[in-house]
């Protein structure tokens, strides 16, 4: 959820609030929302836009605005009063949102401008080079400014300046889209930046995904969009009640002869400080050598407000070592595989040129290992102006790296000359996890670095090589796990729009969305992510509106697959198999052993069955209940055909008995009830004995492995998989120096040129398992958005303590337990206006104390269920002990 957003285009935004109080057992009993057009009116409780009246109930998230119809650029100030069961009435602070430009017609008089030519050193090729475009426009404001907002679409990337000052702290803005489908605009309140009299507007346009996607290289595969361009509107309201609009037109001045000589996401940025134009974005600058901008063709996509945060510098990493090489260069070690760029601090002569080459690892001789970057050059070049200390960092690129080779540095560089800038979407870290197992703790840190680094306005697969694509299959279940670590709601809601926009007219979905690569392969397991991510947004954030919005396109795809690929009630289409199964030899990239590979029809049929069950739930949310009968009938037929073809009742196994072949029907409820335990025990034997307690699943099977093992009573085996240090395992990566998650289980021994050292797809359901099964922080599916929390850790899996927290949409949840021979102690925090079902591993209530009181005297509702005591707890802090 965006706090105080500028320029939204949702006519009925959803309003949410947290009930913050230290009083235990608090539940909201009613609320009243006031929305006013000015802050003054709101302060006077004059709700000229909406007064909800007193609404009885405990809803505190996703309350739909039902006031006056909002028009373009309308301001809205709001607050909420809540009543709680403890006798207090509480007012919130004032919040605000503003509307964006809602119709295409209101942009129509604003022209797109740019320069659609190559400059002297530019080129269009596999390694395209294109210099940045600098634009400026002097404006004369004749009156005192009351308020001003700027609306900007800068393709592919932009930086905006007013009177020499950069506007906003965002980087690499806006977020990427398929620009032929939709174009995002950003909005900034610039009232404080403008003054009466002369002012200067300035922008720098970088290439981003718009130009530098290997332009005109493999046009059958890679989409290209043209040269950078911009459309901007500045609305100024004066204190006398009049207003003025400044737009992009041919009066803007432009040059490509600035210091940014080239900027390409894959290849790096080149900057010549000698060409800096001091004061170019101020009024005291001579632009006689600049040319007038030209009107250019618009990108083609519809204009939309950006409803997800831009990227930002979210942290810094200081390098841990710098070493000279026999080649006269230096190798800088950041100590962490990170994503972002390097800030450089240097003194030298004019014309000195420093080259920085980025990579994830080193070869045996200490030089950079770059084969896994493929044809990405990943190199920044800085040419000094020679005027004392110079500090520089790039604007329009990012790198995935741990090591940097520095060449051409004047003198001997030290660690103080460099700082790593960590760049990802401006979203909050919401989850923490620590346990008694050091390997699991390091895996969690590696996951955090990998997930955050691959948030680039969309979830990408890797940040370092010539790919960096939003593959759907990497996030099928991964997005769910990520949601415990990051507040990724708006990121994934935007991504579902990207997927919807990429849908073909007949209903097909791509494997990559936005479809920067034309990969339309018609399989189930990759495009099915469209539906599973929607399910995550509903369960984790209580977002029903996203389901209603996407349901028609989801249904269209399900129908498309059914009509084209359902044969004899089985889904006869798969493309990738159980991708990245650990191969039989450490030197192999892909397994060639048929016994390790799972039948593609089994994968697609099982997955489609599961998607049908999710669509049944979505049909209810979207009020399309008439679809349920068809989903039910189809699921029944697929289950019957699936078991008839793949279930071997003599061996109690599916197909060729891979762990994936068995775990999917178990996880999805496809196994005949009388055989569930036998199939599970057979799968356990495969994991525990045949595979010696190690992972044998690829991307598909690993999405359900940890939870299925635990839910069926073998959390100890799941813990063994999570804590292993030998191949294949997540811990094997840690033992071999990984600080993120690899693309391959054997990324250090198979052809390393095929291994991204910063991927997230192999995490599967591991992060979900950390939080739901080890910490016991899970949203009850019946009450999405953690309205009721299910707290049911597996205390016997093998850990002796867990300390975890999660900032849900209803507030902070904490679970900290430790056990020894004397018993179990568990500290719990439950946020206000929620409840929790807390499962304790004993049926004997006499052994239990809650906040130092015996359970029988604590006044807590409890029951016995499956040899466990189940407590219903209301908000507050609790310390539970079991002797």
Automatic annotation (TrEMBL):
EC number of this enzyme: 3.2.1.40
Pfam families: Bac_rhamnosid (PF05592), Bac_rhamnosid6H (PF17389), Bac_rhamnosid_C (PF17390), Bac_rhamnosid_N (PF08531), Ig_Rha78A_N (PF25788)
Example of a GO biological process term: carbohydrate metabolic process
Segments forming domain Alpha-L-rhamnosidase concanavalin-like: 324-424
Gene3D superfamilies for the chain: 1.50.10.10, Galactose-binding domain-like, Immunoglobulins, Maltose phosphorylase, domain 3
Reactions catalysed, as given in the entry: Hydrolysis of terminal non-reducing alpha-L-rhamnose residues in alpha-L-rhamnosides
UniProt keyword annotations, A-Z: Hydrolase
Chain ranges of the Alpha-L-rhamnosidase six-hairpin glycosidase domain: 429-774
Residue intervals of the Bacterial alpha-L-rhamnosidase N-terminal domain: 143-314
EC top class named in words: hydrolase
GO molecular function, one term: alpha-L-rhamnosidase activity
Residue stretches making up the Alpha-L-rhamnosidase C-terminal domain: 776-852
Name the record gives this protein: alpha-L-rhamnosidase
């Amino acid at each position: 959820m965006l706090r105080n957003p500028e320029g939204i285009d949702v006519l009925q935004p959803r309003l949410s609030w947290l009930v913050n109080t230290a009083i235990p057992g608090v539940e909201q009993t009613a609320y009243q929302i006031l929305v006013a057009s000015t802050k003054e009116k709101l302060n006077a409780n004059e709700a000229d836009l909406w007064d909800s009246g007193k609404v009885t109930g405990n809803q505190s998230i996703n309350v739909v605005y039902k006031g006056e119809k909002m028009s373009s650029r309308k301001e809205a100030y709001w607050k909420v009063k809540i009543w709680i069961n403890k006798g207090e009435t509480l007012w919130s602070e004032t919040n605000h949102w503003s509307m964006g430009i809602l119709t295409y017609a209101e942009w129509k008089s604003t022209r797109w401008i740019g320069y659609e030519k190559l400059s002297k050193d530019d080129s269009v090729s596999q390694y395209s080079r294109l210099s940045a475009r600098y634009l400026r426009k002097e404006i004369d404001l004749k009156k005192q400014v009351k308020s001003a907002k700027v609306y900007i679409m800068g393709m592919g990337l932009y930086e905006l300046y007013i009177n020499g000052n950069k506007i906003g702290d965002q980087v690499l803005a806006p977020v990427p889209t398929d620009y032929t489908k939709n174009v995002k605009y950003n909005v900034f309140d610039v009232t404080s930046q403008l003054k009466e009299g002369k002012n200067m507007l300035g922008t720098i346009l970088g290439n981003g995904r718009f130009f530098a996607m290997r332009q005109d290289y493999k046009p059958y595969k890679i989409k290209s969009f043209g040269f950078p361009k911009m459309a901007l509107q500045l609305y100024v309201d004066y204190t006398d009640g009049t207003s003025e609009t400044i737009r992009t037109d041919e009066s803007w001045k432009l040059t490509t002869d600035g210091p940014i000589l080239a900027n390409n996401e894959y290849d790096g940025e080149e900057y010549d400080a000698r060409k800096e134009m001091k004061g170019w974005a101020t009024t005291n600058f001579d632009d006689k050598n600049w040319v007038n901008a030209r009107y250019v063709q618009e990108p083609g996509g519809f204009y939309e407000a950006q409803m997800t945060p831009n990227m930002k510098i979210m942290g810094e990493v200081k390098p841990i070592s710098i070493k000279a090489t026999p080649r006269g260069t230096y190798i800088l070690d950041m100590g962490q595989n990170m994503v972002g760029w390097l800030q450089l601090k240097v003194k030298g002569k004019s014309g000195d040129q420093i080259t920085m080459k980025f990579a994830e690892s080193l070869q045996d001789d200490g030089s950079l290992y770059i084969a896994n970057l493929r044809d990405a050059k990943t190199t920044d070049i800085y040419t000094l102006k020679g005027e004392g200390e110079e500090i520089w960092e790039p604007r329009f690129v990012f790198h995935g790296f741990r090591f940097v080779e520095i060449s051409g540095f004047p003198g001997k560089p030290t660690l103080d000359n460099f700082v790593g800038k960590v760049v990802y979407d401006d979203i909050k870290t919401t989850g923490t996890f620590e346990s008694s197992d050091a390997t699991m703790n390091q895996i969690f840190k590696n996951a955090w670095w990998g997930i955050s680094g691959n948030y680039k306005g969309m979830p990408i697969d890797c940040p370092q090589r010539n790919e960096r694509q939003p593959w759907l299959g990497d996030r099928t279940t991964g997005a769910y796990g990520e949601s415990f670590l990051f507040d990724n709601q708006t990121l994934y809601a935007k991504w579902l729009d990207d997927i919807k926009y990429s849908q073909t007219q007949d209903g097909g979905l791509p494997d990559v969305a936005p479809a920067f690569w034309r990969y339309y392969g018609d399989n189930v397991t990759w495009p099915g992510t469209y539906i599973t991510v929607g399910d995550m947004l509903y369960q984790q954030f209580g977002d029903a509106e996203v389901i209603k919005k996407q349901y028609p396109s989801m249904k269209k795809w399900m129908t498309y697959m059914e009509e084209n690929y359902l044969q004899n009630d089985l889904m006869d289409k798969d493309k990738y198999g159980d991708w990245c199964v650990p191969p039989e030899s450490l030197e192999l990239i892909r397994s060639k052993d048929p016994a390790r590979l799972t039948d593609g029809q089994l994968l697609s049929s099982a997955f489609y069955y599961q998607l049908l069950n999710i669509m049944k739930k979505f049909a209810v949310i979207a009020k399309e209940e008439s679809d349920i009968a068809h989903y039910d009938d189809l699921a029944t037929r697929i289950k019957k055909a699936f078991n008839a073809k793949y279930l071997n009742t003599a061996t109690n196994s599916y197909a060729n008995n891979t762990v994936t072949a068995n775990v999917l029907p178990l996880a999805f409820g496809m196994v005949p009830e009388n055989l569930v335990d036998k199939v599970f025990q057979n799968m356990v034997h495969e994991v525990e004995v045949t595979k010696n307690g190690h992972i044998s699943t690829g991307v598909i099977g690993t999405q359900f492995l940890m939870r299925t093992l635990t839910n069926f009573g073998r959390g100890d085996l799941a813990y063994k998989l999570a804590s292993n240090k030998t191949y294949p395992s997540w811990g094997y990566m840690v033992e071999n120096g990984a600080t993120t998650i690899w693309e391959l289980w054997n990324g250090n021994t198979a052809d390393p040129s095929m291994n991204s050292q910063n991927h997230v797809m192999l995490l599967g359901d591991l992060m979900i398992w950390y939080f739901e099964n080890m910490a016991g922080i899970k949203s009850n599916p019946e009450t999405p958005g953690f309205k009721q929390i299910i707290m049911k850790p597996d205390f016997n899996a093998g850990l002796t303590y867990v300390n975890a927290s999660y900032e849900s949409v209803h507030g902070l949840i904490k679970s900290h337990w430790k056990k020894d021979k004397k018993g179990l102690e568990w500290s719990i925090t439950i946020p206000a206006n929620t409840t929790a079902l807390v499962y304790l591993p004993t049926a004997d209530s006499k052994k239990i104390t809650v906040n130092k009181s015996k359970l029988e005297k604590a006044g807590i509702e409890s029951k016995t269920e499956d040899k466990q005591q189940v407590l219903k707890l209301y908000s507050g802090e609790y310390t539970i002990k079991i002797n």
